[in-house]
Each structure stands twice: as C-alpha cells, then as structure tokens.
Write a structure and sequence with these properties.
Blueprint: H1 9-36, H2 42-47, E1 51-54, E2 63-68, E3 71-77, H3 80-88, E4 118-122, E5 133-135, E6 151-153, E7 160-162, E8 182-185, E9 188-191
Antiparallel strand pairs: 1-9, 2-3, 3-4, 5-6, 6-7, 8-9
Length: about 190
C-alpha cells in the first residue's frame, strides 16, 4: 500500500487554497499601512496648500507676517519714498539685479514684485535661517546712518537687506531673501501659486 492511497486529494486542495487565501490576507494587512505611509498626511497636504490673505487693510509702510509651509512670509506695503530708495541703495548691495536669487521669473525687476508697492518675501535670513527684523526707519544710526534706506536687519549675525529683500555687501548672508510663488487678485494675495 502506497502512502498516497489514504490521502484525500479534495481535502488537500481545500487546505492549500484556504492557506493561500489567509496568507494573502495577512500580506495585504501588513502592506496596507506601509503603502499608506507613502502618501502625505492631511496635515502635510494642508501645510503645502496655497494661503490667501486680504492685504487691503495694510497701511503704507506697514508689514504683516503670513505663515506658509512653516515659514514667515513678510508682506510690506511700500511707500513712494521706500520705492525711491531702492535705486539709491544699489551700490551697497551684493546682488542688486537679483541674478543669484531664488525668485519667480515675474519678480525679476528692481522692486522684486508683481506690484511695485507690495513686497512679498520669505522672512528667513539666507545665512543661518534667523528671522530678520523689519527696520523701515531711514538713516538708522545703528544700521549705517546715511547708508540705510530702510529694510531688514538680522539680529543673529548682522546681515542687512534692503526693502526689496536684496542683501548688502560685506555681511554673512550670501543671497537675497527668497521670493515665494504668489499671485494677486485685487487685494487678495495668494501665496503658493502664481
């Protein structure tokens, strides 16, 4: 009598099929959370979403801060005097034409903006990532006196930027402040998409 004569072939097939089904279910149960971990969380997706801000109530010369992707975005409503000073400060700047800067193509102009009176710039120093202070006061003695036309001063290591976010020569920061992608529809500023 051979060993195979007493084996129930039908029962063997059922056991093999059920083992395969249970194994496949186990693999799917283990793989599902792993595959889901590849997709960004709702919080991460929201962090990358565009941000809208009504800037109609900002007064001339005033700055507000808008959070986008965990970074402060400085929005400054520049006055005519502030805009006039942008040309006067050029000889003091490291990259006055913003050739080395991170900015959208539509901001490659002397004002570095879509609309000359509105500056939208990342408030993160390009040296070590500190947040520069807004210092619009012209002629501030602690920032160079007659050579200071207003701008941003980083208190961490002394980097200075003008009112277009362009970096001064001889300071630790290597680049101008970055300009994020943005668009404007009337007084509604949308940061994160153009």
């Amino acid at each position: 009598m051979s060993h195979a004569e007493g084996v129930n072939v039908q029962r063997r097939r059922v056991l093999i099929a059920s083992t395969a089904v249970i194994g496949a279910a186990g693999v799917a149960a283990v793989a599902t959370p792993f595959v889901r971990s590849w997709t960004p969380s709702a919080k991460a997706e929201a962090a990358g979403a565009a941000v809208n801000q009504d800037i109609g109530s900002i007064e001339a010369g005033q700055m507000i801060v808008v959070k986008y992707r965990g970074k402060p975005i400085y929005v400054v409503k520049r006055t005519e005097d502030m805009l006039a000073g942008l040309d006067d400060v050029k000889p003091l700047l490291s990259d006055p034409a913003s050739e080395e800067s991170l900015q959208p193509e539509y901001c490659k102009n002397p004002e570095r903006s879509l609309s000359p009176e509105v500056l939208v710039v990342e408030g993160v120093c390009t040296h070590l990532g500190c947040a520069p202070n807004y210092r619009p006061d012209v002629g501030a003695a602690d920032l160079g006196g007659n050579d200071w036309y207003g701008g941003f001063f980083c208190p961490c290591h002394g980097s200075k930027y003008d009112l277009a976010g362009r970096v001064f020569k001889g300071v630790p920061a290597p680049l101008n402040l970055p300009i994020p992608e943005y668009s404007m529809d009337g007084t509604i500023l949308t940061i994160g998409e153009a």
